[in-house]
Amino acid sequence: MKRVLVVDDDPTVSEVVAGYLTRAGFTVDVAADGPSAVAGATAQPPDLVVLDLMLPGMDGLEVCRRIRQAGPLPVIMLTARGDEEDRILGLEVGADDYVTKPFSPRELVLRVESVLRRAGALMAAQGASSAPAAARELRSGPLALDPTARRATREGKELALTLREFDLLEFFLRNPGRAISREELMRRVWGWDFGDLSTVTVHVRRLREKIEDDPAGPRLISTVWGVGYRFDVPGTNGADHAA
């Protein structure tokens, strides 16, 4: 049975989220402030943390930084403000996903299950016997990605990608030159059939900042207006580029 640590200083939110997760088959621990969350996650590491951004004693960003120092523990960030900067900061410190308050507890449960599935698939891939490196590595221009080792590089330098950024880059590399909608990316990369499409937008923006020479004028991940995005193979003539 998977364990989830719910961190929120609002007892009503904690009670509702814990109730839904328990009914979905999870074991749930609850913390009401930042220091308690760090202590709980350190003493008995959960399988996933649902973490509020605004906490007494230590904010959610600092909690996320500290608990992720011990390893790639999946984190879903909760934010009441819905501000894009909060989302970007959460993703930057290692959160795998975010949910804006008010939210549907049932949707949160689905997102927890989705993140845990991907985390489980990652662990299975890391433990599986690997094929020869040349057979499994994906390359495009300055980029190289090894799905088994979960390692991506740009011009030989390793990229510090979150779990979702890595999956997004892998999907683009496997589908070069094809216009892909945000809905398809959400379905194929996140495993969701519904949700806030700005999640995709924020992740694409963060990925551009890590792989593009000029993120404001991207030449690898182009915006296809009215559709979504396209990964253009370096050296080919794609459609017009836009940020």
TrEMBL record:
Question: What's the domain of life for this entry?
Answer: Bacteria
In what residue span(s) does the Response regulatory domain sit? 3-116
Q: Which InterPro entries match?
A: CheY-like_superfamily, OmpR/PhoB-type_DNA-bd, Sig_transdc_resp-reg_C-effctor, Sig_transdc_resp-reg_receiver, WalR-like, WH-like_DNA-bd_sf
Keywords recorded for this protein, A-Z: DNA-binding, Phosphoprotein, Transcription, Transcription regulation
The chain positions of domain OmpR/PhoB-type read 135-233
DNA-binding region(s): which residue ranges? 135-233
* Sites of 4-aspartylphosphate modification: D52
* PANTHER family the record matches: DNA-BINDING DUAL TRANSCRIPTIONAL REGULATOR OMPR, REGULATOR OF RPOS
Question: What name does UniProt use for this protein?
Answer: Response regulator transcription factor
Origin organism is Streptomyces camelliae
